[in-house]
Amino acid sequence: MVNRCGRYVIYFNGEIYNFAALRDQLGLDPARLRSTSDTEVLLGAWAALGSEILPQLVGQFAFAVWCPANDGRAA
Question: Which of 16, 18, 27, 31 is close enough to 58 for a disulfide, judged by CB 3.0 to 4.6 Å?
């Protein structure tokens, strides 16, 4: 999945159990999201907070975030 501005690409497998709470905490408007998925919320959280979001994630998951605008270096 690519975020709305195209800066980040996420590869995600698993489930974020508290994604609805994170969505609300971050002020992500469900009407503006393209889906109801935890993947999109995780991507929005990463765009907003970067790796600082990691301690707040509850679930079973693995993911990688790529920033194409960063010449292929990790975001």
Answer: 18
pLDDT tens digits, 31-71: 888 888 999 999 999 989 999 999 999 999 999 999 887 65
Q: What's the number of domains the chain is made of?
A: 1
pTM of the model: 0.83
* Residue 56 belongs to some domain of the structure: yes
- DSSP E strands, 1-75: 9-16, 59-66
Strands 9-16 and 59-66: antiparallel
- Distance in angstroms (rounded) separating the CA atoms of residues 32 and 56: 23
